[in-house]
Design goal:
By secondary structure, this protein is mainly α. 78% of the residues lie in helices and 0% in strands. It has one domain.
């Protein structure tokens, strides 16, 4: 695949970099990060301009986040009503959804800044931000900061490890495993606290 990509026209490659990251938020769990890392790796070998890879991946990610934000802002309530009529209401009962919405109203800025560093949580964060109708300008700025920081790490890692794709891809795998483990622990603790409190109130 690396050999094939290295011989594609530049305009196709750069267009793909933008579209690749733009679809990640609206269509999870699309693996956009691995492609950003791949093109940064190829930039380290002189195939592409690393600054363009960084700029286009950042622009694509923010575009995708804002698309999902506006979709949630316009249609989010309908999605929540649909969930409340399906088996998913047992996973996310209405009281839990209301608590999540309140948390985002109070601490949504922090979630947005950490958004790109939380695998598996990016789409839910973007969706909930639109659902609670956070100001669009604030969503854009905080998302831009988060995306710029994360993509800079990916591009630098891929570019610096341009002699070894295994080393570059291993970084992303290890980070995702570590982040998912931390998220799982946090969610488990919050679930235990929630159900313990609910039981004590009965």
């Amino acid at each position: 695949m690396i050999e094939w990509l290295a011989h594609r026209p530049l305009y196709l490659v750069y267009s793909f970099i933008f579209l690749n990251t733009a679809v990640e938020s609206p269509f999870p769990p699309y693996p956009a990060d691995i492609f950003v890392l791949l093109f940064a790796f190829l930039s380290g070998q002189g195939a592409y301009n690393p600054c363009l890879v960084y700029a286009l991946s950042t622009a694509g990610s923010v575009t995708g986040i804002m698309i999902l934000y506006y979709l949630a802002r316009k249609k989010g309530d309908a999605v929540v009503r649909f969930v409340s009529r399906t088996f998913l209401r047992h996973i996310l009962p209405p009281p839990v959804m209301e608590r999540i919405k309140r948390k985002f109203l109070d601490h949504g800025d922090l979630f947005l800044i950490l958004n790109r560093f939380l695998p598996g949580m990016r789409a839910p964060i973007c969706f909930t931000t639109g659902l609670v109708r956070k100001p669009a300008g604030k969503v854009f700025i905080y998302s831009l900061v988060s995306v710029m920081a994360w993509d800079l790490i990916l591009v630098l890692v891929g570019f610096r490890l341009g002699k070894s794709w295994d080393s570059a891809s291993q970084f992303l795998r290890r980070y995702n495993l570590f982040a998912l483990a931390v998220i799982a622990v946090i969610l488990t603790v919050f679930s235990i606290l929630y159900f313990s409190r609910k039981k004590s109130e009965e």
